[in-house]
Amino acid sequence: MKNSRNSVASKLLKARMLLQHPELAKHVPVTRPFTQSQLLEMLGRYGMVYVKPDSGSQGIGVVRVEKRRSAYRYQSGMNIYTFGTFQGMVQSLKQRIGSKRYLIQKGIHLLRYQGRPFDFRIMIQKSPARRWEPTGTAARLAHPQKAVTNGSQGGTIYAAKDLLKPFAGSDQTAELLRKMNRLARLTAARIGRTYPAMNELGIDIGIDRRLTPWILEVNTRPDPCPFTKLDDKEAIRKIITYAKAYGKRYPLVCNKSKKAPSCVR
Fold first, then answer.
1. 18, 50, 83, 157 — which has fewest CB within 10 A?
2. pTM for this one?
3. Which of 63, 90, 106 is the last residue of a domain?
4. Does residue 1 fall inside a structural domain?
5. Could you tell me if 49 and 158 lie in one domain?
6. 87 and 150: one domain?
7. Given the DSSP bridges, would you call strands 102-106 and 79-83 parallel, antiparallel or unpaired?
């Protein structure tokens, strides 16, 4: 049944929608509602997971949880907490979460630059001809002391190719960018079938050490601020133009994210 909403808050709902698509399902990390038993099972299976608010944005409330031999630890913001037992760790985590609905996502070991993980934000919008079209891709490098890459959490914005090339080379970088755009189109088509009133999505894609892309999150109210930090202004111009065609204006107050230095080694 089609829905007239133009935004969806639940990350778990969006993940389940993508998992129903045969090709997209291969690129969506295992995502489950947060419970103590699910956390224990997923840590045993994957060693590292992310615990996220089911609804929310800007990386607020996201916690990286790890099992390391006989110890457990989690990182929230710039703080790391270590525990000798699972029970001690989960008790502390539950106090932090409170009554808010959370989910658990399999942790993806992202590519790193200068020891910091990075991922990619792809903006995809309805064109003036009402077709889904990727309008920009930006790389987001995590703050040196944080586990999340969001610009609003102090991340640094780079041109996507600048961070990918050292790992993939020129030809494979171009291929990976094409593949990410394809995943963005498939994602938009899948969600757009149920929510035809949607005009834009911000899709967060991470690349693991085997150069496999993973859809980490789908944002139905994306902030185009990262694209204002790129030297090439083509993407932000196009994003603004397409948004105007469907009646949207962005405030573009972008103070928290950082612009990449001019030279990347």
1. 83
2. 0.93
3. 106
4. no
5. no
6. no
7. unpaired
From 35, 36, 64, 37, select the one nearest 52 (Cα to Cα): 64
- Cα–Cα distance for residue pair 207/227, rounded to 1 Å: 20
Q: Does residue 93 share a domain with residue 117?
A: no
Say if CB 257 and CB 153 are below 8 A apart: no
Sign for the CA dihedral angle at 211, 216, 221, 225 comes to: negative
Q: What gap in Å lies between CA 212 and CA 209, rounded to an integer? A: 7
Ordered mean pLDDT values, 10 residues apiece, the chain (265 residues): 75 94 96 96 97 81 91 92 96 92 96 95 97 97 82 84 96 97 98 94 97 96 93 97 96 82 61
Sign of CA dihedral 201, 122, 26, 155: negative
Q: What one-character-per-residue DSSP string does 71-135 give?
A: EEEEEETTEEEEESSHHHHHHHHHHHHTTS-EEEEEPP-B-EETTEEEEEEEEEEE-TTS-EEEE
Domain end, chosen from 106, 139, 173, is at: 106
The tokens of 240 are what? 């603004």
How many other C-beta atoms can be found within 10 angstroms of the C-beta atom of residue 222?
A: 21
Residue 2 resides in a domain: no
